[in-house]
Amino acid sequence: MMSTAPAAHCFDLDAIGAGLPVASARTELEAAAHSGAMVVTAPPGTGKTTLVPPLVANLADGLTLVTQPRRVAVRAAARRLAQLDGSELGGPVGFTVRGQRRVGAQTRLEMLTPGVLLRRLLADPELPGVAAVVLDEVHERSLETDLLLGMLAEARQLREDLLVGAMSATLDAAAVAEVLDGAGIVEVPSALHPLAIRHAPSSAPRLDARGVTREYLDHLARTAARAQREQACDALVFVPGAREVDEVVSRVQGLVGEEVEVLGLHGRLPAAQQDRATGGRRPGEPPRIVVSTALAESSLTVPGVHLVVDAGLSREVRRDRGRDMSGLV
Question: Which architecture, in CATH terms, is 13-187?
Fold first, then answer.
């Protein structure tokens, strides 16, 4: 008696996409995917990272790879999809980052960083066993992402069956579609929500010769603690760097005590602490304030947040001609 192979896992797109604005474009997304190459533009919060990967995986006859620009975003996206799918992480949904890999024989959808995918392409440009590759957050331009876009365009010349997609919140869709040899373009409109904006200026200067002043961090911590107490909800506080995250966390914790959980989120933290901050609040847990760098602005979503406090500062890479090198300022 001949044994039959187990049926490939099929993601329930109705359940996964419930309440997501991107679900309204499901027909257009499927049509673009059937064309062999697709470019998706959708603002943050529309659910493109949640719905598009499983949609592609359902259409692909093999493994679907999806890149995220940072390791914390890879783990958060994989964990969220596995939760919505009702499966264990490492089952139908897995992930790979440097030093950590959770995939299995049943994995249909694998999240990974651009660096990991780049190494796989260099080892074998045909990507055996892979049916689709989706590059997410393409607007966060990096050498690895740009290389991947070009290499995947060439890989499609070797494998006509390889589906390649690119997604972003802000993207020159026509230019990327041209690189992918006339890929189908799907534009998802943003969802509009009631929004109240309040300005809380500080009497102290924000910056001095050493960077962000301690007085301004004190003001930011007081503002965040007061706003969270008034709104009685989870809050997300943006500051420019890891040092400011740690200092504001300490200040806010001293103001709110044990009634509110205060968490930091930046690239230097251990994976377990990052995952705790991006995992959302479980039933019965106290409200939380997450203090983050720009990490949480576009490449991942912190669940449950209804209040955002922004320091109004950011660090950008600039070229120092005197030292002939780049650095964050």
Answer: 3-Layer(aba) Sandwich (3.40)
